[in-house]
């Protein structure tokens, strides 16, 4: 048992990772092409972030939080900003295409690296499934608008059609008319009603989602230059449209719609955490391009920070424009940008937005389909996955097998899955990666393995010994001042009704209880060891955002991680390069 525990904690040193990369490059084993400049990385980051969040999820977040959701974008950007600084230090010191997986390998060890690698595979795959489904919705709506309707049973998943048929049948039996039934439900009803059947099974699938996934996968497969050009073009087009929306919409803002600013209080604003964070999950995809950057030590950190700043400014401005154009409670729609312009009698703008949404979704899909195969590749290089995943195409210079597998992993579920089932799971996976990257910086600082100044970007050191406790005191004071029942009322949410806590009540409070315990522990550790403030704040803010995603998402996330542990125990543990003494790989 002691030997097993030692093995799962085996770490790759930063020097070993860089030496391995150098050996592969000089021997011809690594044939990825270094072609990406700062502008290309910035385009990749913006392409990944400005997508589903700005064209769909921002509506429901605004409906729940009101104009104050703009502050939630700033808070989430700060949480991502702390993480981005930590990502930037790792990316500068370890310019390898493994993202958080490689960073965890050098700080926490093999088991945690596997867990975060497995988590990233889920994050990228589920995220792309969600984007492919959302792209399909906008694309079919655009076709409907120009008189080219697609049969409903070819544009949605089987489960949604079945649920819609059951719901509408019950409503019609209850005496309601077609005019009283929501359009989305009736579309699902028609999909089930008119779908062809084979052996009694309805043939219903989201074919456009399959088509766009196949097209993007092919583009990623044939080369990084092609992907770069496509991303740059798509980003320019959608930035023009977003700026046009903000500029035109500003003339229709009615300041009275901003009052009250937070109609549902803090709790209403926080309901949008998942939707708002889903808008930011793309910036870490930049780090997967490390081996194809011309100057990764400088360009990767700068691209990450610039991407966050640009996208946050656009998100905040857009949230204020949307909530200023129409009352916040009307924004709970799937296409809020098109809705607000239709609401103020500008149908031409609504049409432009529909086209730009199709472009925006495609660019997000491109970046994530680009990033995921490189994580498969990194894990394969270390022996934790079969060697086929690290195979580089001799002509296109891309991880060919991993790219094809990624295409199937996204395309097949996109045919049948429901959008609402996947969004939150993507957010919790990304937040978990952010927590571990921030923790990795603290581990390397504690072990004095951080690169020396002048050799790359470093997270600015701020002694958190007194600052963190002071910030917590300020937070408690604000809680006492603004919570209806003060700190005591806030703490009562950990209890049950009438002072009696049942398991059904308590299980939903476990994430928050865990966060409080971790916060107390990190405060003590920060005071005793003078930990760097920025990674500590990054760890805590991202962990708090995880608590807002609910026990159901935590349960699904833990099931996925347990499945990953089975795979690791059956394959990765035994085939790890660090487990083979004849492999030239340093460990600690």
Core attributes:
two-stranded antiparallel sheet; 588 residues; transmembrane helix; Amino acid/polyamine transporter I; globular; mainly alpha
Average pLDDT over all residues: 80
Sketch the major β-sheet.
2 strands, antiparallel
Reading off the top of the CATH hierarchy, the class of the largest domain is best stated as: Mainly Alpha
Helical content, roughly?
55-70%
* Strand order of the biggest β-sheet: 1-2
Specify the CATH homologous superfamily of the largest domain. Amino acid/polyamine transporter I
Total of domains:
3
The portion of residues forming beta strands comes to under 5%
Query: Distance between the terminal alpha carbons, to the nearest Å?
Result: 19 Å
Look up the CATH topology of the largest domain: Amino acid/polyamine transporter I
What are the secondary-structure elements, in order, as H or E? HHHHHHHHHEEHHHHHHHHHHHHHHH
Supply the number of helical segments: 24
Low-pLDDT parts are none
Describe the global form. globular
Over the alpha carbons, how many angstroms does the gyration radius reach? 24 Å
Find the structural class using helix and strand composition: mainly alpha
CATH architectural name of the largest domain = Up-down Bundle
Number of strands: 2
Can you give me a brief rundown of this structure?
Helix content is 69%, strand content 1%. The protein has helices spanning 2-8, 14-27, 38-49, 52-65, 69-93, 100-107, 110-145, 158-173, 183-194, 207-222, 224-250, 265-270, 273-278, 296-325, 336-343, 347-381, 400-416, 423-446, 464-482, 486-491, 503-506, 510-529, 533-547, 550-575; strands spanning 197-198, 201-202.
